[in-house]
Amino acid sequence: MPVTIVLGGQFGDEGKGQITDLLARDAQIVARATGGSNAGHTVVNEGGTFAVHLIPSGIFTPGRLCILGNGMAIGPQTLLNEMDGLTEAGIDLSGLRISDKAHLVLPYHPLLDGYEEERRGEGAIGTTRRGIGPAYMDKMARIGVRVADLLDEESLRTRLGYTLPYRNAQFTCIFDAEPLEMEPLIAEMLGYGERLRPYVAQTELLIQDALDAGQHVLIEGAQAALLDPDFGTYPFVTSSSPTTAGACLGVGVAPMQVSQVLGVFKSYLSRVGAGPMPTELTDATSELLRERGREYGTTTGRPRRIGWFDAVAAKYVVRLNGISRVALNGIGVLSALETIKVCVGYRLNGETITSVPTRAEAYARVEPVYEEHAGWQTDTGDATSVDELPAAARAYIDRLEALIGAEVVLVGVGRERRQMVRRGSFAASVPVGV
Ligand code: IMP
């Protein structure tokens, strides 16, 4: 059962790319399962700093098969731009494979995303406006266009012949916008298809063949569990499922083939876009953490909202996703603080509640119950083992572990590949080749 899932445990931007980059050394396949270019994964390694949006972070480990799974929503032009950028930087793309079942983000999707956001006004979700929601909307409405259709003109004409007039009617009648033309769109898409053809495959079969051969598959989660359409802060969520279940569906593995789910958390909280965030800070501490943690969106450049670690939400995520091990990032970011708070409970309407309320309106009214911890005010960037961390930092990590009910096995003390300290059951094991 050698499938490992790396899952975002909060609202995204927990540093999944760095963890995937690290674990990719022990996997033969690295696959993305969900989302599209709304994700932005920063990888810092010996070759430099790279921001990838669609291609799995495993691409930086030579010899790996890197799969864009069936559960993704892929903009072909965006993908080709990313491929060109990596090729220019000397990254080998021969291991790249794209699922023929993945849905396409077409030029009308970002337009629709933008128009819908404008229409929501005050209630806007704060999407990345990359067209991801509308692409998944089409998938579920069974009017989507898939990667396989790019390789076959007849299929492409059939799919677009149905969907484009429908979208155009929406643009002209509801949004008072210009329609898109069919023939230039078809020509553009067929051009992309020709360039992408060598990489397209039935990737679920590649994954199952690899598992049959005893190989290791790493699934790189995108976004994060609190942005899940079912269990996140609906409607302030993304449109694919950034959960363990979503990861299985998005690449074509069965739940019983998964051997471990590694949740990635930051030792504080950040969020981009609208929606409830009970531990949000709006004072000088938030500015300090934003600057120290470089908390600006990889995809949109937006400043991220900052808050204290929310152990109630984290425990909910751990339980629903079968997270047994945790990578905890951002310990170094907290080093500047004298005291650090952790949310250990919520109060709503004068009562204590122990889980995440379903309605966003109720969640927005929740008051966090905090416990306070002493800070360590020492730079942790050079620590190579947990023993080298200050006692207060170790106590903080021990406490988070107890609160969320999963073992912290990796502690991120900086952004570089080497700045990842092993702990607990990973301390003695060989697999994380740090
Ligand atoms: P969408 O996925 O672009 O539709 O955006 C929906 C919500 O998810 C917005 O609040 C986005 O800011 C958030 N979101 C989407 N992708 C990411 C990500 O990779 N990191 C953090 N937030 C994200």
Properties at a glance:
binds inosinic acid, 14 helices, disordered C terminus, about 425 residues, alpha/beta, 4-stranded mixed β-sheet
Chain-wise SSE layout:
Layout (H helix, E strand, L loop, with lengths): L2 E6 L7 H8 L5 E4 L8 E5 L2 E5 L12 E4 L4 E2 L1 H13 L7 E4 L3 E2 L3 H13 L11 H9 L6 H4 L2 H21 L8 H15 L3 E2 L1 H10 L4 E4 L23 H8 L6 E9 L2 E3 L8 E2 L2 H9 L12 E3 L1 E2 H11 L3 E5 L1 H4 L4 E10 L2 E3 L6 H4 L3 E8 L16 H14 L2 E6 L7 E3 L12
Parallel strand pairs: 1-10, 1-11, 2-5, 2-10, 5-7, 6-8, 7-9, 11-16, 15-17, 16-20
Antiparallel strand pairs: 3-4, 12-14, 13-14, 17-18, 17-19, 20-21
Helix pairs in contact: 3-4
Strand order of the largest sheet: 9-7-5-2-10-1-11-16-20-21
| Overall pLDDT metric | 94
Major β-sheet profile = 10 strands, mixed
Helical segment tally?
Answer: 14
Summarize the structure in words.
With 434 residues, the chain is α/β, with parallel strands linked by helices. It has 14 helices and 21 strands. The strands form five sheets. Strands 9-7-5-2-10-1-11-16-20-21 form a ten-stranded mixed beta sheet, with helices on both faces. The longest helix is centred in the middle third of the chain and has 21 residues, at 153-173. The radius of gyration is 22 Å and the shape is globular. The structure holds inosinic acid (IMP). Inosinic acid binds next to helix 4.
Structure described in brief:
By secondary structure, this protein is of the alpha/beta class. The chain contains 14 helices and 21 strands.
